[in-house]
Amino acid sequence: MIASPVLPPGILKALRDRVGSTPTATLITLPAARISLWRIAGQHTILAVKVGFGRDVDREAAILDALYVVDQVPERPLRGVHPVGTWFAMPWHQGATTDQHWAPLRQRGPERQITRVRALERAVELAAAVTALHTTGWAHGDIHPAHCIHTHAGARLIDYACARGPRGAIADNLMTPRPNTRIDCAAPEIATRMVDRRRPVATPAADVYSLAASLRLCWTGEPAVTVRRGYGGRPASPEQRWAAIADGAPLSRVPSDLAWTALDAVLAPALSRAPIDRPTAAELHTQLADLYRTSARAAHRAGANARALETAW
Length: 313
What we know:
Layout: H1 11-19, E1 24-32, E2 35-41, E3 46-52, H2 55-69, E4 78-82, E5 85-91, E6 96-97, H3 98-102, H4 112-135, E7 148-151, E8 154-157, H5 188-195, H6 204-220, H7 238-246, H8 261-270, H9 281-312
Antiparallel strand pairs: 1-2, 2-3, 3-5, 4-5, 6-7, 7-8
Helix pairs in contact: 4-6, 4-9, 5-7, 6-8, 8-9
């Protein structure tokens, strides 16, 4: 069964009391063959609705229920069934993703120092969100620049389909997640399991690698490990990319016009091949916060000096 671009009947009716009369449904993406994501908007609110077939949607809804108990999501999911599967709804987070906040930095504009400060502020928010999740005993399993929304209430992680928590947090028959097949920010131990055709397991250490890889991707526009060509000059296949990460291929080179030594020094330990060599999310958060404060002070001094020169002229 493949996810349909048509919203199954009955879902809009079930949500009408929550969102208001005459709700509109917009298909956002088909992230997997068996799952579709919808934006349901009405007079009262906007909801994100995942519709699927099989156990994946049930599992993520159960995870969100468990995360609500430990204050990691703002509401319990609304849940229901449709003729051939299940669905759940959560509040739609209004805001830009981490990558969208970092994109101006890659434009190489004249106000790079100010842009860096703004980007680092969002990096600190993302790291704080991951740290808070880890303190509850949960690992996300799919940290990526598109999976953090920066709202007026702070950073919100989304897409918990690959998450793993303490034993007993959700029913045993829902404990096994679907594999994370996103290569760009995957940790070497996740890549190794993919190469060996074993199911990946979300861990805090893998999340830390993915967090650092996400920020490097936001900064440079390139994955931390880049395999540009496969055998015979052909583009690298997903299998070759997984193998390169699993084998500990060196980090891709940062373009000279995007060089940022201080950030590189913070991210490098978190991108270590061995999980034991990486900092915790809390430690990485502290280091990013220190870099943010240092950068903000430098930008303030630079601005003051520029204003003084303007006055002198």
